[in-house]
């Protein structure tokens, strides 16, 4: 990852770290450096060095033997980067015809180079969207972001009606597979079967008269975030 300064005044590497930490962080649990290394595919010593620099810059709190947490300053910077990334993804798919399985890498490059003004013009051209193509909420310009009450598909019982809302944007093979099935955010379905012991889940979805049944393996089902609409078939 490049260490050159970007349009935000923070190095590209630092921006990538802050964004990754934000996505890994929970209010109760600091983020382990090993988790950061895994997401960014870098060596643990590199993480240690960057954590030290971010802490000295007031962007992170480093809790020895526990992990790291974003400071308010670090959280603002992370949300700014998430807004850039997700607005760019939305613009590339909506206006330039990018597929949702290829847009992440392009957005990773552009998010460090575009100006705040260009991001806002993109957002305006899109009508200020609330979500990116993968269902992730887009932070507002003021750093607010909608909290979603979603559960993984594996948590929905048989006979539950649900709506597919979000999937991660990093695995292009998964996105191509879901796209081929017509399973994108906004698609409604009913759980018609599930096997025990981490077995697959079977969904029924599609327009009336053209429904299809689809078996989803446990690993993929656990990565599909959904809203449960009801627990009755219907």
Binned strand content: 15-25%
Structural class: alpha+beta
Q: Stretches where pLDDT falls below 50 for ≥5 residues?
A: none
Tell me the count of domains: 2
CATH topology of the largest domain: Arc Repressor Mutant, subunit A
Strand line-up in the sheet with most strands: 3-8-4-5-6-7
Radius of gyration (CA) equals 19 Å
Helix count equals 8
Major beta sheet summary = 6 strands, antiparallel
Examine the secondary-structure arrangement and name the CATH architecture of the largest domain: Orthogonal Bundle
Kindly summarize this structure in a few lines.
With 234 residues, the protein is an alpha+beta fold.
Account of the 3D structure:
The protein is α+β, with helices and mostly antiparallel strands and 234 residues long. The chain contains eight helices and eight strands. The strands form two sheets. It has a six-stranded antiparallel β-sheet with strand order 3-8-4-5-6-7. A two-stranded antiparallel sheet has the order 1-2.
Layout of SSEs?
Layout lengths: L11 H13 L8 H8 L3 H13 L3 E4 L3 E4 L1 H24 L7 H8 L5 H10 L25 E2 L8 E6 L5 H10 L6 E7 L6 E5 L6 E5 L1 H4 L3 E6 L4
Antiparallel strand pairs: 1-2, 3-8, 4-5, 4-8, 5-6, 6-7
Helix pairs in contact: 1-2, 1-4, 2-3, 4-5, 4-6
Labels describing this entry:
alpha+beta, 234 residues, single chain, SH3 type barrels, 8 helices, globular, 2 domains, 6-stranded antiparallel β-sheet, two-stranded antiparallel sheet, Arc Repressor Mutant, subunit A
